[in-house]
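Subject: Interface between my chains keeps coming out wrong

I've been trying for a while to get a sensible model of this assembly. When I model each chain on its own everything looks fine, but I need the whole thing in one frame so I can look at the contacts. Pasting all components below, labels as-is. Any help appreciated, I'm running out of ideas.
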Amino acid sequence: MHMDPHLLRTFVAVVEHRSFSAAARALGYTQSAVSQHIAALENDLGTRLVERRPVGPTAAGERLMEHAAPLLLRIDAARADVARVGRAHPTRLTLACGPVALTPSVAGDLARLRADTPGLAVDVQVLGRAAVAQAVLTGAADLGLIDGAAAPSDPLPVPDAGPMTGLAVAEQPLAVLLPAGHPLAHRGSLRLFDLADAHWIDAPDTAVSLGQLRAAANTDGFRPHLTYGGTDVYGLGVLVAAGHGLAALPLSLAAALPGTVGIRLSAPRLVHRVEVLHPRAPAAVAQELVGRLTG
Amino acid sequence: MHMDPHLLRTFVAVVEHRSFSAAARALGYTQSAVSQHIAALENDLGTRLVERRPVGPTAAGERLMEHAAPLLLRIDAARADVARVGRAHPTRLTLACGPVALTPSVAGDLARLRADTPGLAVDVQVLGRAAVAQAVLTGAADLGLIDGAAAPSDPLPVPDAGPMTGLAVAEQPLAVLLPAGHPLAHRGSLRLFDLADAHWIDAPDTAVSLGQLRAAANTDGFRPHLTYGGTDVYGLGVLVAAGHGLAALPLSLAAALPGTVGIRLSAPRLVHRVEVLHPRAPAAVAQELVGRLTG
DNA sequence: CATCCAGCATTAGCGATACTGATGCACATG
DNA sequence: CATGTGCATCAGTATCGCTAATGCTGGATG
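Reply #2:
Try treating it as a single job with all components included. I did that and got this:
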């Protein structure tokens, strides 16, 4: 009865639905059960966790919410990790890819793997950045491909919810995408610091997210001027071309977009890297693909 | 009954004690209850988790063990985090320090804080590196001080079991400790790569651990020639002086040890940094000390 | 200000659960 | 082959965790 994941799950549902009854419906309980769950949790922790009428988290509840999601995720990850043990050679490979992570070289390796292992079904899923790690942890995907900006020898930051290894697959220079007529568009290279106060587009599911940029460059700048929720690189290019702001992309991608110019970033020394994420004990086919990607 | 922390706890106890009965005694249960707990877990996960006679984890059990400790830690962290909310101004400040983290400057800041806040009881605890973060997360300490080697702008690696912030307190050059008669002892500075194949002493609770060194320098070398389990820097100095191997230390500390020479490391660009760890919502006094340490 | 109502709390009751204590059974040891 | 250690199993019981019904409270409405 101590901090039962079950109680946490209904707590999260209550906070998200902002209603006991709605949470009950969503979870397949009665409203009474939900009420008792919350009461039990509050009793256990000795504090009020949700304010009623209107329903919402208290300060303590907000704290708990920060823990609840990772906790529940890790539970699923543990389940998946245990389930993977002893799993025979599966005939299906599920890949979770970040938006810009599926490069021609990766696709080539994958094609060669399929050629060498007849009967292998492959399932490629494109997800948002955070969801990739989650899919690998929970076993929804056999492998994950993420990308982002980092110093040349630093690994990409990954939410740590379980034993998972990231291996570099490919690196290329990082570029900033400017509209073709931009005053800086003729430069051979640019320093990131000079652009900290420029207008930026935050496109966390398409380009390098501004948060990553801030972390990698160790600064406070890069405040978003516009937020782009799509996963389509061309759409982002259109926005940049129209002058809505700048975006950071791997150089080869930036060079391919019409109406814009991709200028290589010279300082700080950052690269765009694709990494493959795999669980501690991946299936045989997955292991094989990891070998090809990194070998 | 899905993956109850209770069941996990007894699972961990069983694996650690390598016995159902011993685990039962440790947990205050009957042997029967423990047997049923394990059976329930195995039934839930659909795999055998522990081998009996002799008792030990199966492959799946080993996987689960990797998750169990962080999971239980995070549960305690969540508890502590929630309990901290609304806590009035406490009159006692508990500091968890890593072995080399308690520098003169830190002690000075602490002394000034005590002078300014009469009636403040301070409790300083020296712990191993991993235990510091754990103490902060579980609320056993209000603040933690850790140290280690890292690239100048990189944060120290901290086990991610909850919302916790690390702020740099002090940085100084990293040095390698050589016996006084060592052939390289007259050098003005040394490159770490040249020492990768030397004999090293692994002293994770005293000097910079070799694991950190490997990670920071991105290499495979630094295989331990001798392991030193103590937390006493002078004892480590004696071992180095006697030629048992080398160790990495902050320069000022290395310079103070007799019979040895501390040579500054010039490449890769690594520093020894002390960071203060605090939970998301630290108590008022703790917050004040953080301000003084970092300000 | 009276009424209504949406929605959370409370309670009784019952089936499921989680313990204990006793017993069974398998394996290692001498 | 006898013995003992230690896990599995089983019966019994207290407790838990649900549902269904009912109570209660704060806000909207005229």
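Reply #3:
Confirming on my end. Chain A touches chain B through 40 residues (CB under 8 Å).
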